[in-house]
Amino acid sequence: MASKAVLTGEMFTQGDIAAAEGAIAAGCRFFAGYPITPATEVAERMAYRMPRIGGKYIQMEDEIASCTAVVGASYTGLKSMTATSGPGVSLMNETIGLAAMTEAPMVIVNVMRGGPSTGQPTEASQGDIMQAKWGSHGDYEIIALCPSSVQEMFDFTIQSFNLAETYRTPVFLLADEIVGHMYERLVIPPEDEIVIAHRKKPTVPKEEYLPFKADEDLVPPMACFGEGYHFYATGLTHDERGYPVMTPECQLELIPRLCDKIRKNADKITQADTYETEDAEVLLLAYGGEARSAMRAVKDARAEGLKVGLFRPITIWPFPSKQLKKAASNAKQVIVAELNYGQLVYEVERHIRGEIPVHFIPRPCGVPHTPSQLLKEIRRRIQ
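User: That's the sequence. What structure does it adopt?
Assistant: Structure tokens below.
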């Protein structure tokens, strides 16, 4: 007898488990993965839950096979996901590029750990920010959401599936070990209150269907295996039929569309959270687990009478440029705190464009900044 899919109500649980429950609530019914710290608990939860709700769970021989299986499952019409950490994403990147080229909706949960190489398997990092954007070769756009709590691990996993289905693209839930292994209160709302998106389906007669002919939103309707449509999907440059065409003209038509379906919809996609930014002379930027320390530091600074605000990018890719510029409109300087040796700070600098100074506080050691460390830096910069 099948179990209830959406476990509504309150629970005290881990971030990784919340991501698994979010996937199930979003309609995910296929998971393929390979164990890796600190994301293994996502796979363990899916292995337990999927058979009970009519879904499919497969532990593959490695991360390459896992990602490839997810692309194939997506083309059968199933909402599909994998979960891994940075070393696993390194192996998946060729297939992530294939998913971008064939426009296969999929979700990749990356619970980041210290690197490079095997690094610090049980410690936190935000070292995969640029990997998520540029990991596979060529020109394409990616979407990545960055949660800061157990609740957001659930909520943003649902959003990741909705974005993947809407834009026919791979989407990262880009968490870190802090949030993935954290235990907090999770509230799962009634099933009828959860907003679920589904991919567009063809409306033309089957004999007229062109699998990569996009609508005005630059996203093609997607037929799936077994639905009676004839189509061809390849990682090669292809025309609207899906047939390989090795001409500059075809590439010039295809690649801008793959990028622009994200770029031109960035205002609909990007999200950010702000706190006390209206009169902030110093803007502290942090995300993921690091944002929790940053929030405490900003509150303590405010208690001292210091005009400090917090900007937390939720959508890392596309970068929330407009939201950052608005939050920094009255600031005299920006402080960026990351659990790495410099990644998103360069994107901040690019969008600020030298209008105000941008300072960076690195932390590539697996342990987040404490609020007192951040407050000390704020005091130093504000004097």
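The longest helix spans residues 150-167.
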